TrEMBL record:
Record carries keyword Ribosomal protein: no
Residue ranges annotated for the TPM domain, each copy included: 30-153
Taxon lineage: Bacteria, Pseudomonadati, Bacteroidota, Flavobacteriia, Flavobacteriales
Organism of this sequence: Flagellimonas taeanensis
Keyword Transmembrane helix tagged: yes
The name this protein goes by in its record: Uncharacterized membrane protein YgcG, contains a TPM-fold domain
Keyword annotations of the record: Membrane, Signal, Transmembrane, Transmembrane helix
Span of the signal peptide: 1-19
Length: 247
C-alpha cells in the first residue's frame, strides 16, 4: 500500500513538473530578473517603451535572465515570445530583447508583423555594433537602452532605417582591390586550364599517331588530357558559381 502511494505521488509530481512552462510569464514591459538595472534605469526604460507602445501599438519588451539552462538563446527567446504572445493580436508587432548574463548572450526576437523592418541583418548589426561593445564594458543598461532607442527610431523613421540598411550592404561589399585580385586569379586559373588542356590534346594526337604507325607505348597524352579536363572543369565551375549560376 505504501509503495503504491509513493508511486502515485511520484507520478503526480513528475506530471506537475512536466506541465510547468519553463518560460516566465511577463507582467511588465521590462523584466530584470538578472538584476542588472538600477531602479532609476528600470523605471526610465519602462516609461520609454510604454510611451512608444501607446503611440504606435508596436511593443518592445526587454527580459534579462541569469542563464538559459539547457536551451539555446534562440529556443528560449522563441518560447518566451510565444508564451506571452507579444505584440497586438492580429498584428504580431512585438519585439523581444533577451539578455542572458551568465551565458553572455543576447538576442532580438521579432514578430512577423515587424520582420520587414527589423530584419535579421538589422537585428544582428544592432547587437554587434551597439550592444556588445557596451556589454564588454559591463555597461548593460547602456547597451540595451541604446538598442531600444535604435529600434524605436527605425520603426518611426523609414529614412533612418534605409540608411542603416545601406550601411549593412556597404559592409558586405567587396572592396575594389578584391575585385582586381579575383579577376587576376580567375584569369590565371582559366589560362592554366586552357594550357593544360592544350597539352593534353597534343598528347592525344600523338597517341593516335602512334597507333597508326604501330608504335603505341607509354605516352603522356591521356594523363595530360585528363588533367587538362579536370583543371578546366574546375575553373569553369569556379567562374560559374562566382557569377550566380549552379552546376
Amino acid at each position: 500500500m505504501g509503495r503504491t502511494l509513493l508511486f502515485c505521488a511520484l507520478l503526480w509530481f513528475s506530471g506537475f513538473c512536466w506541465g510547468q512552462d519553463p518560460y516566465p510569464q511577463l507582467t511588465e514591459i521590462v523584466t530584470d530578473n538578472a538584476n542588472i538595472f538600477t531602479p532609476e534605469e528600470l523605471q526610465g526604460l519602462r516609461t520609454k517603451l510604454i510611451q512608444f507602445e501607446d503611440e504606435t501599438t508596436n511593443q518592445v519588451v526587454v527580459l534579462t535572465i541569469n542563464d538559459l539552462g539547457y536551451e539555446t538563446i534562440e529556443e528560449y527567446a522563441n518560447g518566451v515570445f510565444n508564451r506571452n504572445k507579444l505584440g497586438q493580436a492580429g498584428k504580431d508587432n512585438g519585439i523581444l530583447i533577451l539578455f542572458s548574463k551568465n551565458d553572455r548572450e543576447v538576442r532580438i526576437e521579432v514578430g512577423y508583423g515587424l520582420e520587414s523592418y527589423i530584419t535579421d541583418a538589422v537585428a544582428s548589426r544592432i547587437i554587434r555594433n551597439t550592444m556588445i561593445p557596451k556589454f564588454k564594458e559591463e555597461a548593460y543598461f547602456a547597451g540595451i537602452d541604446d538598442a531600444t532607442g535604435q529600434i524605436i527610431e527605425f520603426l518611426n523613421n523609414p529614412e533612418a532605417l534605409a540608411e542603416f540598411n545601406r550601411e549593412i550592404e556597404a559592409e558586405g561589399e567587396m572592396p575594389w582591390w578584391g575585385y582586381v585580385l579575383f579577376t587576376l586569379f580567375l584569369s590565371i586559373f582559366i589560362a592554366a586550364g586552357v594550357f593544360v588542356f592544350y597539352k593534353g590534346y597534343s598528347g592525344l594526337v600523338e597517341m593516335f599517331r602512334g597507333i597508326m604507325v604501330g608504335k603505341l607505348g607509354l605516352v603522356p597524352g591521356p594523363s595530360l588530357l585528363l588533367q587538362g579536363y579536370l583543371f578546366s572543369t574546375r575553373a569553369i565551375r569556379v567562374w560559374w558559381k562566382c557569377f550566380g549560376g549552379s552546376w
